[in-house]
Amino acid sequence: MNSRLSAARSNTQDTLNDYKKRMKEDIKSLKENFLRIVEAARYEERSQLSKTTASLYDTSQVQVRAAKIVLAGENLMKLIAELKTFLVIYDFPAINENLKKRSNALEEETKKIKSNLLTIREDLGDQLYPGEDEYYSTLRPLKAQGSAK
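== Mediator of RNA polymerase II transcription subunit 22 ==
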């Protein structure tokens, strides 16, 4: 049992470390590609290339880097979705705490309802007792008259 628990913790730590590594790589890719786009946008005099060739090269570089930025952004969005799923699945202490709070709240509500029902029963008994007395006392003379005939 103890080895299972340590294996689960190790697996969880490995997963978290993998998430952290992926996040760092994607953020690094975003930053690096953005810097390359800014560098490509700067005008530099290139004596070996014609202006048209340099412009086409810079345009293609910007497109490639922009595509890489989009890919890194999509990877980060997928990572966020995986983290949310991971949190929902493996956040047992929070789930247990919420269940315990809800259970305690329901127990308190049950106690209040039972108390109210007992109070209502006592009040109803107090109200019905005189009526029952009156009802049964009126039946006695009728029984007496019925037996006399």
